[in-house]
Amino acid sequence: MPCQSNEELESILLEAKQYTREGKVADYIPALSKANPDDLSVAIYHPDGTCYSAGCIQEKITLQSISKVITLALALMESGEEYVFSKVGYEPTGDPFNSIVKLEMSNPSKPLNPMINAGALAVTHMIKGNSVEERFRKIIDFVKRLSGNEEISYSAEVAKSEFETSHLNRALCFFMKQHGIINEDVEELLDLYTKQCSIEVNCLDLARIGIVFALNGKEPITNKQLMPAHVARICKTFMVTCGMYNASGEFAVRVGIPAKSGVAGGILGAVPNRFGIGISGPALDDKGNSVAGLKLLEILASKYELSMF
Amino acid sequence: MPCQSNEELESILLEAKQYTREGKVADYIPALSKANPDDLSVAIYHPDGTCYSAGCIQEKITLQSISKVITLALALMESGEEYVFSKVGYEPTGDPFNSIVKLEMSNPSKPLNPMINAGALAVTHMIKGNSVEERFRKIIDFVKRLSGNEEISYSAEVAKSEFETSHLNRALCFFMKQHGIINEDVEELLDLYTKQCSIEVNCLDLARIGIVFALNGKEPITNKQLMPAHVARICKTFMVTCGMYNASGEFAVRVGIPAKSGVAGGILGAVPNRFGIGISGPALDDKGNSVAGLKLLEILASKYELSMF
Amino acid sequence: MPCQSNEELESILLEAKQYTREGKVADYIPALSKANPDDLSVAIYHPDGTCYSAGCIQEKITLQSISKVITLALALMESGEEYVFSKVGYEPTGDPFNSIVKLEMSNPSKPLNPMINAGALAVTHMIKGNSVEERFRKIIDFVKRLSGNEEISYSAEVAKSEFETSHLNRALCFFMKQHGIINEDVEELLDLYTKQCSIEVNCLDLARIGIVFALNGKEPITNKQLMPAHVARICKTFMVTCGMYNASGEFAVRVGIPAKSGVAGGILGAVPNRFGIGISGPALDDKGNSVAGLKLLEILASKYELSMF
Amino acid sequence: MPCQSNEELESILLEAKQYTREGKVADYIPALSKANPDDLSVAIYHPDGTCYSAGCIQEKITLQSISKVITLALALMESGEEYVFSKVGYEPTGDPFNSIVKLEMSNPSKPLNPMINAGALAVTHMIKGNSVEERFRKIIDFVKRLSGNEEISYSAEVAKSEFETSHLNRALCFFMKQHGIINEDVEELLDLYTKQCSIEVNCLDLARIGIVFALNGKEPITNKQLMPAHVARICKTFMVTCGMYNASGEFAVRVGIPAKSGVAGGILGAVPNRFGIGISGPALDDKGNSVAGLKLLEILASKYELSMF
């Protein structure tokens, strides 16, 4: 079993940590720019409940794009594959996460996949409920179940900061509204979406969520099936093909595990049938991925032969 | 062990075969348009050397785009990862295989990945040798070793037909020549490339090649390492992220195995550590993939839980 | 002097009118779809005040995109060339009027020209005032002065219908807001923009506005300079290079006069130093131009050698 | 009459000449990089045969893109409007002159207009003849007639240099060959095209050619109609909408005359019914236009009110 001691993980973390200075903290969302670029922490969660970790593990970050995998799972559970994929596509794209070009050119204007912003907004739009509050409660409750952590909450400050500045997401929403992909009030959808992005977790939470995907939906402690196996499988597929923005292809070659990153510096990893990985490291590379987090995963992948390929 | 009898495979083939009529044979290369759209055959090769098959298994098809995986392996072996990926990228794209748009927009004009035509041409350009003949011999000899079939040859007729009509590939080559991605004579490169595409195989050959990738480069009979494990792994990664043209994302969700298709109707599949799959079925869907071949893989995937995810 | 008799104009109108059946009325704005596709009317206004006309000349249509020229003139008068062109570009584009692709790709994300929707929205954004009402009064007052018609008003019904359905324009606005091209409340800007588009005129009004541009800003009756000559010249330049959506180039070859069309079927024409032309014909071709109106201008252009080139 | 003395023109030239240092000589064609960036000369040719000039007027430059207008005229005379515009479009584009993006996206893949490289290649393809030599003789003879200069020849050195390096043009040609826009041997077409681009003229020749367009095809001295009036008109239209690469819109606003530039630094101007202008100034701005030449035209335009608009 890999990472049998915290010491081993500590030493890998130390090696990766020197790369934090090559990245910088996201600044396009004002509230994110306050993060400490030097932070780095990692947790690895095994099917038997053992968990190893290193670094400032109590440091919380917001989920940001990592939440896209979670709402995708929820939407698939609520509305089924056929409906979900009538609104968003399956195909990866070499474009940046906020690109609007493909949205226009593809036909019938449906977002190429659920991991780009347009696709994620279309997925969040599917989450059912009578109000933003009810729908958000559904999402955060699901995160609580996945992480086994009842204390999970969201940062109202980050949500507000994002809500006020996400004009590009508004543009994507109105484009999709024009083309019939979404039909709710855009401000309500963005309210819900920015809240979902602002759910706070630490690397332990992320590792716990990761193990559920790794075990095809099964909670390792209680053995409860938190999502159907095929839903977990679909999510892991998108994590491989489009989980790391437009560096997904390179990540698949270099690391080769299902993973999803967020611009707050988090990475959720799921090594099929082996373990869940949670990383928090706010310094980002130019594609929007945690620069030291990627390095850490590369070291782990080569040391413990994690690649699925 | 799946497919323990030819009868079982026969019945799956029969079920898939009815979908042949939903596709049509490639007609943009004159020599390909003569194929029989009703043909369908499959072979599955196991690590212990057992092989099961069904359909018109002796029917030969040309490799076409399947050859892209093979030259990628060869180039990686000859020139190393660093060099190869200084000339072609890692990222999947939602565009059709012959798109020129991304080529222009990406920076520094390097093809997005080695599975689109531009990228594959750049890879073939890397194959070393003093003449087209010498370089082609190197490629076809590698195919012979991978398939364990010394009889493998190529169709001079198909090669000629493609050579004469591949103006779009010439456009891609000159675009790359302008941008310093390739620097040889374009007609020579196309001569080599169209020959590589015209190598003839049947589904048994494809299954034999598939098992080598599945076993990380190891020949199952002789136990010889035909390519380094990391080369096989890289190739399988691209087969997952971009192996089925711009239906790769959907294929990953529905089937979930490394696979590469060609417009002659072939599919090369490699189920990691389990088996190699070869399919031949010339009737294509609108993305350029064997329509009944895809169906057959979907049935196999669901029946024997092939998905890696 | 051309068109010396109404009879001559009537006969030209009759010839053009048979083309109405080749087009269809705009239906993407519900309120526009009620127009009569068979309507066609034309007026020609001379520098000496003589006016000839034919057809259902009292029939009112809304300005729609024709208003883009008028707000451009107003913005140039209020804020000057340098400021205006720091926010919108000069270059024509082969894309459809509502395209968002170029917006993203151009750098620094400024709309390519003031005649595409994005550019026109950026121009309307420049119109100064303390409220939408005040700014709109400024625009409609300018239309009244240009047309010499104090009775000009706007259709609250069309404005409301457009406001409720213009999600694409909202998308463009938020995209520009993200990139700092506009900074006001998007709903307010759209309120103003849809009102400006809904100003109602007939072909006589359009011909009167046209003569002012033709005479470099001078009102033919009062001899008052309603806009500086260089402003009129700039507007006429854009009418030539981008006045007829993505059929502007063909129109320049076939007709060769400054003209601006709108999706309600209006065309404003200005033959430099000769006369103003107003046309109303709601049946549109697939580019969004009045199909019979274009035909009518082609006949006039060939009969009276109108081309500037 | 403007520019009644060489002294006046000299002083305008002097004012413009200081801008030469803001540009740089084209270096993507090796043979062009030898030009002197400080050179600037201008000639103005009047309908009565008077000609004024200033600067190093005997300095020869190659036509480059200016030749596109001349072959367009020739093709229109040989094959007629209908045929020519079945192969190339009318619409300006905001893209750079060598862009391949629009070529792919437009339908049915026909070049957007005859002034971008793809369109100009398609036009040259139309020039009839039994050999490159015969077709080239036709083109150069036409240039001789237009300029009234029997001494005109071409630079074999520049032609060879361009032929050897124009891989991007080869890419465009093969793309068009694939789509049926051209069907001749690409190397032959490029041989002809690079020769046409390498025809050498000085600013006097350009001014003489310009007056022919300005007078709707009539030679001012002999009064011979060198091309039909409608052909001259069509050419002038494209000079306005797409004559100055992707700065055409700005040039139309700032100067407002039909003009065509080339990357050797030449500008051909035609002020309708007034005069022809020839400019030679090899230092280019970032769009590929003579930087001091543009300045010179701006001064002339404002001083003598040249704008057509």
TrEMBL record, chains A, B, C, D:
Example of a GO MF term: glutaminase activity
Catalytic activity: L-glutamine + H2O = L-glutamate + NH4(+)
Enzyme class: hydrolase
Pfam families to which the protein is assigned, alphabetical: Glutaminase (PF04960)
Keyword Hydrolase: yes
Keywords, in A-Z order: Acetylation, Hydrolase
Annotated substrate binding sites: 65, 117, 162, 169, 193, 245, 263
Keyword Zinc-finger included in the entry's annotation: no
Enzyme Commission code: 3.5.1.2
Protein family (similarity comment): Belongs to the glutaminase family.
Subunit structure: Homotetramer.
Entry-linked NCBIfam families: Gln_ase
Name assigned to this protein: Glutaminase
Gene source species: Niallia hominis
Lineage: Bacteria, Bacillati, Bacillota, Bacilli, Bacillales
Gene: glsA
